[in-house]
Amino acid sequence: MITDTEIKSRGCELLAQHLGDIEAERFIALIQREPFDYTQWRQQLDRDLSIREISDRAMATRLAKRG
Fold it and tell me: Crossing angle of helices 21-33/4-19, nearest 10°?
């Protein structure tokens, strides 16, 4: 199990890697500024997708990470 500090550090690194530094900082500012329920947000994110579509996306992500 990793520490909270390491989770924050890795999260910031991933955000910066995928969004760029400025957009990552904007994302963090948005999260801190607004009331945010991650669970509710996550449930809404895929609500229009079928189980098959979710599975296909997960498999594509997994295969992409393998190289």
Answer: 130
